[in-house]
Amino acid sequence: MLTLPTFSTARTQIAGCSISDLVRKYGTPLYVYDQSVIDQRIEDLAAFDRIRYAQKACSNIAILDRMRRKGVVVDAVSAGEVRRAMMAGYSPDPAKHEIVYTADIFDHESLDLAVEHSLHVNCGSPDMIGQLGVRRPGAEITLRINPGFGHGHSQKTNTGGEQSKHGIWHEQVDDCLLRADHDGMMITGLHMHIGSGTDLEHLSAVCESMEKVAMKVGRTLRTISAGGGLPVPYKSDESYVDLDEYFALWDATRNRLSETFGHRVDLEIEPGRYLSAESGFLIAEVRSIKKVGKNLFALVDAGFNDLARPVMYGSHHPISVCGATSDVSSREPVEVIIGGPLCESGDIFTQREGGFVESRPLPMPFIGDYIVIENAGAYGFVMSSNYNSKTRAPEVLIENGQPKLIRQRETFDDLVRGEVIPD
Ligand code: LLP
C-alpha cells in the first residue's frame, strides 16, 4: 500500500532546489516538475504488461522523452499528440505498440495521419471503423467500449454511461464486429475508461463487462486496456487505490481470457494523472493582500489561465507558502483566499465545485512571497490559455537536483503570432 502524502503549508524547496533560486532564474508564474516522482509512479505500475501514458495530462516533449526512456508507451488523442510523441522518439509502427490514437472521432488531419503512419487506432465511435476501413482495409484496431456506467471525480470527467459521449455503447458491439468484418479489419484490442478519479467499487463491474465484450470479439483479441483514472490524493482525507487489489482483478480477467483464447492476452493501463500530477508545482508570486469585508485575499500573478482545475471542477489543490526573505513556518496561520489577476470572480484557486469560494489556513503571506500550488502536474499547463492576453508560463524539469528549462515563457510575439489586421 502506498504511503499517503502529508501536505505542509510551508515550503522552501522542490526536489532539492530552492524555490527562491528557481524564481530568480525563471520568474513567475512557473511550472516545475520533479522527475523522481514520475519515476516512482512508473515503478508502482510495473506489474502491468504496458503502461500507456495518457499524455493529455502533461505533454511537454521532454516529459514524453523521459517516459519513453523508462519504457512507458503513449496514448494520443489528436494529431498534435501523435506528432509530439513522434518528436519525443516514439515510433508509430503499430507492431511496436508505442503510440495508440484514442478518440471518439477522426478529424481529417488525424485520419490522414493514421493512414500515413499506419497508426494503431482505438475507435471510440462505430463510425471510426468504417472511416478507417475505407482507407486501411485489414487494419488491426481496438474498440473503446462504454460499459453503460461511469465514475469520476466530477460529472465532467465521468466518461461512461448514457450521458457520456465517449466510447462505443456496449450494446452496439455486434454491429461494430460486422462493420470491422466488412473491411477485413481485425479487432485486437479492447479498452474501457470510465472516468478520472475512479474507485475499486466500480472495478469488478468494469472487468465483468470487459469479459463479456471480449467473448464476443473472440480469439483475435490480444490486448485489454484498463484505461486511466487512477486517483491521487489532493486532500489529506483522500487516498490512492490499492494497486495490488486493482491489478489482481484485472489480472484475473486477463488470465481467464488468455485461457479461453489459448494465447496470452496483454494487460495495459493508461494513466495520466497518476504518473504526473504529484510531480508538478505551480509557483506564483503574491502581488496584493487585501481585506474585502471579512475576507482576506492574497492575489498572485497566476490565474485560471495557468491552472483551470479549481474554476472548472472546483478541484482542491494543496497550497503552501514560501517566504521570499524569511521562513514562514513560524508565522501565525490565517484564513486566506488565494486568487489570481484575471477579470472574473471565479479566478480563485481555493474553491469547491459550484464556485463556492473558500479560505485556507495558511501562514500569513506577504507581498513578494511565493504561493506554491501542488499536485499541478496533470491537467495543469496543458489546460492553460492566453485568456486576458496572458503569456503562458515556462516549464522546468528537475532531475537529480538539477533544474532544466523544458519550455520557455511565452512572449508577446508568441501571443499575437498568426493574427492579421486586414487592409
Ligand atoms: N484514457 C482516456 C481515454 C481518457 O479519456 C483519460 C482522461 C485518461 C486515459 C487519463 O485519465 P487520468 O488517469 O488522468 O485520470 N481535465 C480533467 C481530467 C480529464 C480527463 C480526460 N480523460 C482534470 O483536470 O481532472
Automatic annotation (TrEMBL):
<feature type="binding site">
    <location>
        <position position="309"/>
    </location>
    <ligand>
        <name>substrate</name>
    </ligand>
</feature>
<dbReference type="InterPro" id="IPR022643">
    <property type="entry name" value="De-COase2_C"/>
</dbReference>
<dbReference type="InterPro" id="IPR002986">
    <property type="entry name" value="DAP_deCOOHase_LysA"/>
</dbReference>
<feature type="binding site">
    <location>
        <position position="273"/>
    </location>
    <ligand>
        <name>substrate</name>
    </ligand>
</feature>
<dbReference type="InterPro" id="IPR029066">
    <property type="entry name" value="PLP-binding_barrel"/>
</dbReference>
<dbReference type="InterPro" id="IPR000183">
    <property type="entry name" value="Orn/DAP/Arg_de-COase"/>
</dbReference>
<dbReference type="GO" id="GO:0030170">
    <property type="term" value="F:pyridoxal phosphate binding"/>
</dbReference>
<dbReference type="InterPro" id="IPR022644">
    <property type="entry name" value="De-COase2_N"/>
</dbReference>
<feature type="domain" description="Orn/DAP/Arg decarboxylase 2 C-terminal">
    <location>
        <begin position="31"/>
        <end position="377"/>
    </location>
</feature>
<keyword id="KW-0456">Lyase</keyword>
<comment type="function">
    <text>Specifically catalyzes the decarboxylation of meso-diaminopimelate (meso-DAP) to L-lysine.</text>
</comment>
<dbReference type="GO" id="GO:0008836">
    <property type="term" value="F:diaminopimelate decarboxylase activity"/>
</dbReference>
<dbReference type="InterPro" id="IPR022657">
    <property type="entry name" value="De-COase2_CS"/>
</dbReference>
<protein>
    <recommendedName>
        <fullName>Diaminopimelate decarboxylase</fullName>
        <ecNumber>4.1.1.20</ecNumber>
    </recommendedName>
</protein>
<dbReference type="InterPro" id="IPR022653">
    <property type="entry name" value="De-COase2_pyr-phos_BS"/>
</dbReference>
<feature type="domain" description="Orn/DAP/Arg decarboxylase 2 N-terminal">
    <location>
        <begin position="50"/>
        <end position="277"/>
    </location>
</feature>
<feature type="active site" description="Proton donor">
    <location>
        <position position="343"/>
    </location>
</feature>
<feature type="binding site">
    <location>
        <position position="379"/>
    </location>
    <ligand>
        <name>substrate</name>
    </ligand>
</feature>
<feature type="modified residue" description="N6-(pyridoxal phosphate)lysine">
    <location>
        <position position="56"/>
    </location>
</feature>
<feature type="binding site">
    <location>
        <position position="379"/>
    </location>
    <ligand>
        <name>pyridoxal 5'-phosphate</name>
    </ligand>
</feature>
<feature type="binding site">
    <location>
        <begin position="270"/>
        <end position="273"/>
    </location>
    <ligand>
        <name>pyridoxal 5'-phosphate</name>
    </ligand>
</feature>
<keyword id="KW-0028">Amino-acid biosynthesis</keyword>
<feature type="binding site">
    <location>
        <position position="313"/>
    </location>
    <ligand>
        <name>substrate</name>
    </ligand>
</feature>
<dbReference type="Pfam" id="PF00278">
    <property type="entry name" value="Orn_DAP_Arg_deC"/>
</dbReference>
<keyword id="KW-0210">Decarboxylase</keyword>
<feature type="binding site">
    <location>
        <position position="229"/>
    </location>
    <ligand>
        <name>pyridoxal 5'-phosphate</name>
    </ligand>
</feature>
<feature type="binding site">
    <location>
        <position position="344"/>
    </location>
    <ligand>
        <name>substrate</name>
    </ligand>
</feature>
<keyword id="KW-0663">Pyridoxal phosphate</keyword>
<comment type="subunit">
    <text>Homodimer.</text>
</comment>
<comment type="pathway">
    <text>Amino-acid biosynthesis; L-lysine biosynthesis via DAP pathway; L-lysine from DL-2,6-diaminopimelate: step 1/1.</text>
</comment>
<dbReference type="InterPro" id="IPR009006">
    <property type="entry name" value="Ala_racemase/Decarboxylase_C"/>
</dbReference>
<comment type="similarity">
    <text>Belongs to the Orn/Lys/Arg decarboxylase class-II family. LysA subfamily.</text>
</comment>
<dbReference type="GO" id="GO:0009089">
    <property type="term" value="P:lysine biosynthetic process via diaminopimelate"/>
</dbReference>
<keyword id="KW-0457">Lysine biosynthesis</keyword>
<dbReference type="Pfam" id="PF02784">
    <property type="entry name" value="Orn_Arg_deC_N"/>
</dbReference>
